[in-house]
Amino acid sequence: MIIKEIPFGQPILGKEEKHAVSDVLSGPILVHGPKSELFETAFAQFTNAPHAISVSSCTAGMHLIYHALGFGPGDEVIVPSQTHVATAHAVELTGARPVFADAELETGNIDFTTIESLITPRTKALAVVHYLGVPAEMEKISKIAQKHGLFLLEDCALSPGATHQGRHTGLIGDAGCFSFYPVKHLTTAEGGMIILKDEALAQKLRLLKAFGVNRSHGERKIPGDYDVIDLGYNYRMSEVHAAIGIEQMKKLPSFLAKRKTNFNMLESLLRSENKFRILPQPIDELRKSSHYCMGIILDAHLAENRATIMNQLKSKGIGTSIYYPHPVPHMTYYNDKYGNTFCPNAETISNSIIALPVGPHLDSIDMQTVAEGICSVLREH
Description:
By secondary structure, the protein is α/β, with parallel strands linked by helices. The protein contains twelve helices and 13 strands. The protein folds into two domains: about 240 residues, Type I PLP-dependent aspartate aminotransferase-like (Major domain) (Aspartate Aminotransferase, domain 2); about 130 residues, Alpha-Beta Complex (Aspartate Aminotransferase, domain 1), CATH 3.90.1150.10. α2 runs parallel beside α7, α3 packs parallel to α4 and α7 packs across α12.
């Protein structure tokens, strides 16, 4: 019997992207060109952002922001425990210290009630992740950041298309960073984007992402004539990556609509199951999710057998994932350096979550197969 594979995630790249890449490769400009600017413009229009800056990855974008703000040894940034390690790495790479906040058990987002107890005179910023595409409690979190004079950075790796009170994620705080990794909402193969409102900071980020060079290629009256006025990085996006992004932006609305349709169908099919709970999307009328995936939290007795359950689903052709395998402070690097961090809610989620696919590469028949598969497997436990 041939089993149809249902991948957890899969980039959707068509002839449009292939032609766009071919056009770039046929021309003389592979970096410092018009494609990056066009991609930035398209993303800015989609999010209604005053400024959009393409970078080599979401991690690079977050690190670049902290670097531009002058963070270093002795500074602290509060970050979620329940996130990808990149959220903490971006802080760590500056020499500052990430201070970990626990998660909300209901949503997986940062627990805003724990934030103020972590603030010290060394705290410079607060990073928020919109877990699985659901906006965090940004109104409350923004008030905390403003009260204590903290820079508020949004890690929007999973939230293109998500909004809070009508504002796109990334524009609620001081800046937001997006990821274009292959299984994200849109892809450039690899890449990222920063959006923000502050013009002065935007200008500095553009400078710092390209070595701190004061004149781009197009601005030089004499080829090769430039000065370096600040310490920067090579965090630019190539024209090849940007060309893919331009075509992906045209498809993003349909991608998001398909994710929502798939999520809602899968939720309706699994609603009566009592061996797990579904992390809700959206949480309320004020928050619109981007439906990255469906997170189910297994009952305690089933969580112990999660690996077996996921392997059984794999044998049925159903791809799954874990978001995330451990709270970041319990990862070896951070645990060895900073010691044990108490984050019971993040630990519970990490130990019991299975992420189910709802991406636009799937259809209603696939959702039916996923629902039947998870129900069938759980009946055996």
